[in-house]
Protein 1
Amino acid sequence: MARLRTSSRTSSRSSVSFLEVDGFKGSFSFDDFFKKLASDVLPSLLDQEADEDDGGGASKGLSSGPTFSDAEKLLPLLKDTRRELVDLSQQVEKRLEKLKKEVAFHDSNHRKTLAELDKGVEGLFASFSRLDSRISGVGQTAARIGDHLQSADAQRETASQTIELIKYLMEFNSLGDLMELSPFFSDDSRVAEAAAIAQKLRAIAEGDVITAGQVIGITSAKGASNSRGLEVAVTNLQEYCNELQNRLLARFDAATQRKDLLTMAECAKISSQFDKGVNAMVRYVGSRPMFIDVEVMAADLKKLLGEDGSQLSASNLERRLSAVYKEIVETVRKESSVISAVFPNPDAAMSLLVQRVLEQRVSAILEQILPKPSLSYPPSMEEGGLIQYLRVLAVAYEKTLELSKELHAIGTGDFDVEGLADSLFSVHREEYAEMERASLNQLFQAKIGELRVSSPQIDAQASLNRTRVVASPPSHQPMSTSVVTEFVRWNEEAVQRCCVLTPQPIPLATNIREIFSCLLDQVSQYTTDGLERARESLNEAAALRERFVIGASVSRRVAAAAASAAEAAAAAGESSFRSFMVAVQRSTANVAMVQQHFVSTIARLLLPVEGAHAACCEEMAASMSNAEGAALKGLQQCIETVIVEVDRLLAAEQKLTDYCPPEDGNPPDHRPTNACTRVVAYLARMLDAANGALEGLNKQAFMTEMGNRLYKALLSHWQRFTFNPSGGLRLKRDATEYADFVRSFKAPAVDEKFETLGTLVNVFIVAPESLFTLIDGSLRGCRKEALRFIELRDDYKSAKIASRVSILLDDR
């Protein structure tokens, strides 16, 4: 047993002999450590691991691992391992302590070194700062020296140039002929340099550029008064500059003919030293074919007027003028590329070109297409009238402004191209507003004349109808809404034209108001004349009725003829009534068109002028007052016509037996009388015509007046008859028929009167003893009418109603 333990301890020591500090470095696996430690004591562990690697999971049930009894063998091994591990741990701690001391020592040395380095760096920075200050000072000194050197060089160069200029100035001051000048001034290869020097000499001689010291130097060098000498120099210099500029322009013209852009650019650049190149620009612009070639101008007119040179219309002009202006824009665009390559200041050259285009070429076109007409002797409508001129003017102005915008877009700098284009129309725009008003009046007069052409035929037919005493249509040209629609269309066109030709808000508002006033005058005059002509038809119908009024004592044959004529006159009256109502309806439509035109087109354009909108509304109301007066008079005549016809129908159709039938035992007739039926049918036709023409308060007032007149006419008519109780019932049926009909008037006051009338006729129905109860009851409010009606009873005398009425009146 002792031997076994000894061998176990020996094997355990050999097992832990592999323990070293390096074995615990890196990744550590306890399983591997344990297997390695126990492999000598428990070999079965290695066998089991080998079997698992070879057989896999299938051999687990067959292999046998360490048993529980083998655990005792591990105890000595674990104790030795613990002892060894403790020893290793102590070794590691000792080594760690030693390393800490070494690190602390080296850290202390490092800190000392860093402190010494900091002191050295601070000293180095201080040295660098001193060095930078010295370098900055040296640089400033060098810059000042450079400035002085540059200034000195510039002064030397200036002095050298001044000396040279003084020499040339003395040369110009002393010579008598330009041929005596030095070759420098006649050398074509040095023209630019000679031009620059000549300009400087002129500036010196004229005293504009040279300083006072230089003037003194020149005076000292000449040794005499500079006034007279400089005048000679100025004269010679001016002559030389002119000669040099002429040479340059000649070279420029020759180069232009050859289309040598380089030479042209060189000459233009040199010439710009004299007069900013204006002469070269003017010569180039003036040499363009569009300004000197007559064929170009003739081609423009041919494109505008056509082969036959016929009169232009606005539609043709717009298309043709656009084509001509498009060609001008293309020409200017091509010239722009040349100008940009030649002239130092292309915007100035383009301004001259565009100015010449507008003032010469465009102006010539406008003179041909816009001959200004005379207001005293305007062209006739057969020749196009003033409207033709205004339409052409508007198209030409609009297209010319579009042209100016395109030309400005090509490049003209600050040149006001649109302003120049606008000024071309200044003569036409001065009298534009007056011309527009004259044109509208001319159109109106032409339209009225056109309408009157057809009137004689209508008047002749109407006269023939009156001779034959037959119903005829109105003997006048009827009012038409299409005519006023044309008036409004003219006005809309004038407003559009005014907006184009008068773009400024305040003048535009003023002109728009005048144009609208023309429309108001036209519509007012046309509507008033139409209503007056419709009233003439009513007057003619009234005169026709009066011609056939006959007395009571005439023969039956004469009476029959008069009755037939009266029927024809009544038909004429009805026709004139309808015609006037149509005229009123169309007048209303005309006024509505004008108001709509004002709201949609005119009102917004008047806003820039304070009070213009309200003043225009007042003017519109005032202009329609004449038409309203004619309409009111005509409506009164219409009512009169209706009432007269009602009286005629009642007189012709009402029989004495209608209201006082004989007591023959026959049942009473409860139908309306024939006179009532005829009157209601006639009134229904008239009401239908009035309803289609009138509306609102006008309709209400007309119906109320018609109802009141009808009420009076019926009262007057019935007072011609005598009534018995059966007749009273028939009268009550008529009154009910009339009351039912007038309800369609929708006039409450009229309805009330006819309801009272239905109650009033009861005085013919009740017994004499019940009259006074009726009068004191439902007829209390119309006692006078009731008393007059009582007198119409057939038993008024026989029943002694008169005495009873007297007693009643005495009691009251």
Note: Residues 584 and 693 are 6 Å apart (CA to CA).
Protein 2
Amino acid sequence: MGGCCPPMDLLRSEPMQLVQLIVPIESAHLTVSYLGDLGLLQFKDLNADKSPFQRTYAAQIKKCGEMARKLRFFKDQMMKAGLTPSIKSISQVDINVDDLEIKLVELEAELVELNANGEKLQRAYSELMESKIVLQKVGEFFHAAQSRATARHREIESQSTGEESINTPLLRDQEMASDPSKQIKLGFLCGLVPRDKSIAFERILFRATRGNVFLRQVEVEEPVIDPASGEKVEKNVFLVFYSGERAKNKILKICEAFGANRYSFDEDLGRQTQVISEVTQSLTELKTTIDAGLLHRGNLLQTIGDQFEQWNQLVRKEKAIYHTLNMLSLDVTKKCLVGEGWCPVFAIKQIQEVLQRAAIDSNAQVGAIIQVLHTKEMPPTFFRTNKFTSAFQEIVDAYGVARYQEANPGVYTIITFPFLFAVMFGDWGHGICLLLATLVFVLREKKLSGQKLGDITEMIFGGRYVILMMALFSIYTGLIYNEFFSVPFELFGPSAYACRDLDCKDAGTVGLIKVRDAYAFGVDPVWHGTRTELPFLNSLKMKLSILLGVAQMNLGIILSYFNANFFKNGLNIWFQFIPQMIFLNSLFGYLSLLIIVKWWTGSQADLYHIMIYMFLGPTEDLGENRLFPGQDRLQQVLLLLALVSVPWMLLPKPFLLKKQHEERHQGHSYAQLEITDESFFQLEQSHDSHGHEEFQFGEVFVHQLIHTIEFVLGAVSNTASYLRLWALSLAHSELSSVFYEKVLLLAWGFNNVIILVIGIIVFIAATVGVLLVMETLSAFLHALRLHWVEFQNKFYEGDGYKFFPFSFVLLGDEDE
């Protein structure tokens, strides 16, 4: 950790002190800023009764919030433009908050103006583009109609021979021209309508005008940019002929309702050509103007992006500083700010140096003052962890943050958690796969730590060292079980057993004979595939589970002794630790002893029978189940001790607590009262009421009764719970064996390359999906439960709260 800090100690949290700071107002900002850089002081809110708007620096926080809003606006604009803000500013320019505020206002105004002008130009460009399309499509329609009319007129003239025919028009052109009342004036409207609304548009027009319109629609090949929305939309050009003003008004309203954009069209052919030429020229000029605006906007955003991270950090720091200053209270003279906070004892000297430096740098006439306050308030819990231990500490903290300076199970979790996982996952082939996958995260941690990963990937990356330890222990237990994808290997020498004859005909009936010393390490490979494999491994793993469980529960009870000794709590030592150790080891410690003796002697004694009749018939003779001389008398003594330990746990402690309470308040004893977990709440109440609150004996006794019953029943259920180590190990081994024998070996037996390839693919998929993913998650969760429930409930209170210092390093992105 360096010369300034003591060595890391995970067993007890760092000693903490409540300190008071008295800071002159002129140096308050710089002082808090330096303390944020240091990151070793957790401020208390001395203005909790005030709303955010009533606090001293509400205006400054509002100003920082407005600057943060502008920066988020810039970030959104950069994202839309496809630019990514630089992670590190290209050029570090010293700038204060006031100058930054002015600069952000100017940049926002300029960017908003550029956006508004760009939108207007883009809208005008889209309208001109639509107008050009309408001019072309409608012009084509009129030209085609005129051509057909001319051709038709010539055809009629050529066919007329002076005789009337059925195709001869009833009214000649001359007659219509001579009588103006007979002429019909048709108006027309043209424009663009969204293609998905074109059918409804046509239907509504027909119904509204009762069919007195002529409508033509032509599809536009390419999607066009809609002037209103700015998005690409597939549209149709429409041309509708009508007669009368009423019909025109109806058509205009329908066009407005359907979002159809209308454009003017001149029937004069020469005028059409001139308008198209003017529109094309305007489009070219607008395109040039838009491109120039986009280039200017892109350069502006690039300039913002180069400094964005620096500005963002500055604004977030300023806002955090003012939030912290709002937690300080003004003294009566309104010239100083008074604050309180928690800090580690080792940090006092560093904080004093920071305060002196802030006073010098701010040219303050008076320096800040720091003094230690004495309080009965429980301090926060602070463990200094590194990248390896932090993930294991998070596993413990997920259950509950340790009470101040109580024994931290995280120290033992570093070893016991991956080991219990490996007991359930033991296969050194699977362990190697898990190790290789984890090494990818470990070796590339510098690169990956600076990237944004997905939720699951982020979680795996955070626990990479936990998984690394799980993989290493899985290789170790896999070597003990002698399983490599369920296949045994003679890694540590030949098997200790051999067939009775050369052809091994009677190996499956009579059995094997021992020809050499026992296999050097782990399970002898000869057990694999025999009729007795499952009973042998079941017996082995079940007994191992009980031994591991009893050992870990004993460790938990021993840690409760260290807690009681550390907090000078004699009652918990004499009336909790000692009877709990006696009860647990009188029953399940004795069972563990029997298991070891049976392994050592090779006895055929039935342990089930011994344990059952230890309760049902403690005076009966063990007979052939006796493992050692004096076992009968030992069982009777242990049973008696187990029975005595229950009232030992239950009765004395509440009465002694009551006696201490009475002596303390009657003045007979001025010794400090030992604060136990059960009496802590009552003592706090008595201190608050100046000692006039009565001792709640009934509540203390009921609490102790519940605690005793929980431990007695838990000793049985927790020991049984450790049998999950055996069950999951068996399930993992059998699944691995099934995949190997029923998939890989079965495919190999067909002597077909295609079937073999398919078998290998299925085997790999099953191994990865089931054994390396699902089984890993299952074993992880079961190991988690064993630590949280079976281990930690023996000693761990977990009712503390974390130390959250004011630190700029811990500032995250704020989404307001």
Note: The longest helix spans residues 97-159.
Protein 3
Amino acid sequence: MAERRGRCCPPMDLLRSEPMHLVQVIIPIESAHQTVANLGDLGLIQFKDLNAEKSPFQRTYATQIKRCAEMARKLRFFKDQMSKAGLSPSIKSVSRVDIDMDDLEVKLGELEAELIELNANGEKLQRTYNELVEYKLVLGKAGEFFHSALSTAQQIEFGSQQTGEESLDTPLLMEQEMTTDTSKQVKLGFLTGLVPRDKSMAFERIIFRATRGNVFLKQAVLEDPVIDPVTGEKVEKNVFLIFYSGEKVKNKIIKICEAFGANRYPLPEDMGKQVLMVTEVSGRLSELKTTVDTGAQLRRNLLLTIAEQYDQWNLLVMREKSIYHTLNMLSIDVTKKCLVAEGWSPVFATKQIQDALQRATFDSNSQVGAIFQILHTKESPPTYFRTNKFTSSFQEIVDAYGVAKYREANPAVFTIVTFPFLFAVMFGDWGHGICLLLGALYFIIRERKLSSQKLGDIAEMTFGGRYVIVMMALFSIYTGLIYNEFFSVPFELFGRSAYACRDLSCRDATTAGLIKVGDTYPFGVDPVWHGSRSELPFLNSLKMKMSILLGVAQMNLGILLSYFNAKFFRSSLNIWFQFVPQMIFLNSLFGYLSLLIIIKWCTGSKADLYHVMIYMFLSPTDEIGENQLFVGQKNVQLVLLLLALVAVPWMLFPKPLILKKQHQNRHQGQSYMPLHGTEDTLLLDTTHDSHDHDEFEFSEVFVHQLIHTIEFVLGAVSNTASYLRLWALSLAHSELSSVFYEKVLLLSLGYNNVLILIVGIIVFVFATVGVLLVMETLSAFLHALRLHWVEFQNKFYEGDGYKFHPFSFSLLGDEEE
């Protein structure tokens, strides 16, 4: 045994969790970092927090964790910048790279400073560029205002010269009036800029009200959106030109522009200067465009350099941070020269851990090696099942109900077969099963590629359960062949039907019935049953009885596993006063019913099993009459009923009384427990329940046993009835499939119209996929899940353990997500 446990990879045992022990490692300070790193690579030890009373800031390596957190922040900043630039870290195998953390910290700081500077310069240049673009648009549109106004004025002047009226140069007032009233001359000013189009109407209205209409405002719509210099977003804008009179009005207009986010730009009055300004702005725009593009290229090159090594840096920082987190869980020796670590590890990993400690001592050039020793404790160890990619999804189904107690029988071993089988009983159709199989095989064939991608929630869940779906599909094909249903259509796959019509025309095949002319159909349901008037009564009877047989068999398996648990934990009390009466009670009633079903099938009897079971309780001494299936049935029923009645107090009274007697004897010194070897210490400790403590409350123990007894007695009835869901869902699936086939596909075929046929096929495909392959699959999955969690596992499974979470670098990526 010791030789087997000492091997590197002993055979995987899924029925019982791996034997665990509590280990203590005393590590010199100089080799502590390398030791924890080696143990993280190994990933087979779960450290206990020996500094739980200290806050994170009071621990020894708080400073190092802050450094790692700061580096992680910089890496997150880099990742955010890369995602904005449309880049992603280079996907390649991340190998171990020896990078000094101090050098990495300096390098990350320099890269962050350079990137921040590039971002700031780029934003400043981009803002200036966007302002110049707006300025150019304002110059163009406002210039058009002035140009059109000047053209209009010249046309008016030309017209007045033709008619002999006064020209533009003719003063409106006489020279005497002008010289005498110069204080009344009014000088008009103007403002130009851009305002968001969605605010333009409100902008115009507010200006009109604020100035009491003493302004002239004109707007022009820009065809294309422009990038706002402040927000950096594309916005649809209008160019505005406002003429005003007076400084007070100007100040009001400026405040309103600021409130509406309208950008103002200067505009010279002289037309010649406007043309020069347009030329100057265009030249500056071309220069800025070149500068912005150069800066963007520099930034992209820097981000590409970061992307090449991002994964390596990120992994290194996560490793260092997890190492220091683990070191903070270790207690420091009084001499300040050693760290003391405690944790759980599998027994088979002892040699690997010792080798890792020796390598750490050698790599760190430590003069003193780490000390490894096994501690003996009464604590319950964590539960650790070594699974592979096939068994892990089934283990997750069980763990979702509750993690197995240490060394408790693991339902996942049986769930691998029973779960997909019970699903298939409800889903049985080999056409639908093939569709499920093809979908699951797609995920399995591309699992290497898909496992490295970020999938959606539903796709991720489906991908994680791909092997469960394969098993469900295979069993669905099997049960579909038994039910003889391919999208509800029967086939003569295993030979010809055993039945034929009464006449050659077969007009009464579905009304007057059929006659047997050959041997019984060799496998599954005879195809001739489908469509006959006896189909539903026959299949209902078959599936209902089959559901009871499967349910009683699985519940018996659960009770049998409780025996193996009790035997493994050396609890004879649970064997004699829990397992035995439970087996007697269940099989006296429903085991007997299952036997009657099998006898009826074998003999072809027409006995009414409902009548037999009901009057077995109501009138056990009455004659059975025509419902008798075998000789001596009445006496057998009396004995079974008596055994069922005896089993109830057998479960209820002896166990609490014996526990009380054992407690009294233990405290009176009348019984002694022999000393055991260290190897069995943990095993025996885990069998001690709450009754082994100094405080023993008989009333609590008795009430607990009473609840357990009532739960089992009532559960035996309700759980058996619960398995009838296998019959109900199988019938529903079959009828839905038949409706879609007959009322959609066959109906569209009967019209002899290509368009109707295409529509019918599309509706049939979508109904089959949406209802039968998605909704019905989910429904059958949930019902099979309930049957395992409630009807099966509650017979033996406590599920009050806790999972083994080792310190492992391979889990860092999952924790980050």
Note: The chain is about 60% helix and 10% strand.
